[in-house]
Amino acid sequence: MKADEIREWDAVELAARLKELREEQFKLRFQSSMMELENHGTLKKVRRDIARLRTVLRERELAGSAPGGAGAPAPSEAK
Fold first, then answer.
1. Which of 22, 27, 44, 49 has the highest local Cβ count within 10 Å?
2. pTM of the predicted structure, to 2 decimals
3. How far is CA 29 from CA 26, 52, 64, 71, in A?
């Protein structure tokens, strides 16, 4: 899974895929703890795919809030 492919997905598809990957990660971690995991590379791959999805979600979040507040300084508090 590449970041360019992920950026083409809509928010619903991103959320669904993230949920699937988290469930898969849970299953793989459980198998690993029980010494039943055959390929430990799959756990690493799933973890990185989750990170990619979360990165794209964060990019979209920042892009949505950028026009009003990304560069503007925070208002000072009056005492």
1. 49
2. 0.76
3. 5, 19, 34, 40
